[in-house]
Amino acid sequence: MTTILLIYTGGTIGMIKDYNTGSLRPFNFDKLIKNIPELNQLDCDIDTCSFESPIDSSNINSEHWIQIASIVEDAYENYDGFVVLHGSDTMSYSASALSFLLENLGKPVIFTGSQLPIGDLRTDAKENLITSIQIASLKQNNKPVIQEVCLYFEYKLYRGNRTTKLSAENFEAFWSLNYPALGESGVHLKVFSENLYQTKKNKKLIVHKVMDSNVAILKLFPGFNALLLESFLNTPNLKAVIIETYGAGNAPTEDWLIENLKIAIKKGIHVINVTQCSGGSVTMGQYETSKHLQGLQMISGKDITTEAAITKLMYMLGVNISPKLFKTVFETSLRGEIS
Ligand code: ASP
Q1: Every domain of the chain and the residues it spans
Q2: Same fold, 2-207 and 215-330
Q3: 21/326 Cα distance (integer angstroms)
Q4: Within a 10 A sphere around the Cβ of 317, how many other Cβ atoms?
Q5: What would the pLDDT profile of 14-52 be if each residue is shown by its tens digit?
Q6: Residue 243: beta bridge partners?
Q7: Which residues are designated catalytic?
Q8: Between vectors from CA 134 to CA 27 and to CA 146, what angle results, nearest 5°?
Q9: 89 CA to centre of ligand 1 in angstroms
């Protein structure tokens, strides 16, 4: 019998309405599970564990990610797959973070959640949860079909570190614009094996448990000025920043921008160029408006999402990648997050 561990962290899926305030708040997991008698019909054994106090995912931080990674580590030998129930707001960040923390992962870790609570008549929670469990149970030649951190939502299975939440309204809330879906649920459950991440064979799972949050994201906008950049780059303890640039990695060519970035890089702050477009890639040098950034030795995020970039930075700083290798390692795909 296939065994699955269901890890409940919180999110809309398990929320109920607080009639005093009118807001949705996280709810007790056992009550949640009772709402899904269908789970008993699945062809696998399901065990559950829950955060002591389930959270709205807007409250997530790197300690929670390490907590999830530790749960997977402790249970790794006893289960064939893992399903993480999580709020959709920061699910792409969490799935990205877990992809970095779980090195040489050889089993599925599927993040899912819902836009409506499981108790709601029109809920999307049941399909998301049931299909995620089925996906986590898939085996071929007695080996798990999926061996990476994924996100399943509204009939689509994606590589977790390629996703972004693009809608606060549609059931189809997530997209993976720079990498194709890994699977699709219709009348049949299809997995596109050519898109799956190939874990190196016979490598033992390594679970990283240190992340460094001294990182930041700065989104450019027309009107952005020297004063803002200067105060941002002088944030105490700042070790790495993502500059969300325009289009293919473009930014103003003004002297104050170049000078401030030069000083920051000289101080040892890693500066990463990630496009603020949801799809496409940074190509420094394609335009004059990015040639100057290339000259500064700015790190290219290529087609990485901001969610994967910021969590990759926290991970890389946590494992103490040497400053000399930092640019090369960041620009290399570690878990399939970059094309
Ligand atoms: N605010 C909720 C959360 O992220 C939204 C959701 O679950 O979809 O926890």
Answers
A1: 2-207, 215-330
A2: yes
A3: 48
A4: 19
A5: 888 777 888 888 777 777 777 788 888 899 999 999 999
A6: 218, 273
A7: 12
A8: 110
A9: 5
Reported as a single tens digit per residue, the pLDDT across 114-168 is: 999 887 889 999 999 999 999 999 999 999 999 999 999 999 999 999 999 999 9
Q: Which residues line ligand 1 (CB under 6 A)?
A: 10-12, 56-58, 87-89, 113, 115
Q: Helix H segments across the chain?
A: 29-34, 62-75, 91-101, 125-137, 226-233, 255-266, 288-295, 306-318, 323-330
Report the DSSP pairing between strands 270-275 and 109-112: unpaired
Extract the tokens encoding 242.
Answer: 């993502």
Residue 46's alpha-carbon distances to 16, 31, 107, 264, in angstroms, are 24, 16, 16, 50
| Cβ-based neighbours of 143, under 8 Å, separated by 6 or more | none
Please name the amino acid found at residue 57.
S
Entry field: residues in the chain: 339
How high does pLDDT run on average in the chain? 94
Q: What is the dihedral of CA 189, 193, 194, 199, to 10 degrees?
A: 140
Q: CATH fold of 2-207, please?
A: Rossmann fold (3.40.50)
Task: Provide CATH code, domain 215-330.
Answer: 3.40.50.40
Ligand 1 centroid distance, CA of 156 (Å)? 18
DSSP assignment letter at 6 = E
| Distance in Å, CA 154 to ligand 1 centroid | 15
Choose the residue to mutate in 58, 166, 169 for probing ligand 1, maximizing ligand atoms within 8 Å of C-beta.
58
Burial of 55 (0-12, 13-18, 19+ CB in 10 A): middle
Q: Can you read off the two tokens belonging to residue 238?
A: 């700042």
Atom of ligand 1 nearest to the CA of 15: 7
Single pTM value for the model: 0.96
Q: Left, alpha or beta for 9 (phi > 0: left; psi -120 to 50: alpha)?
A: alpha
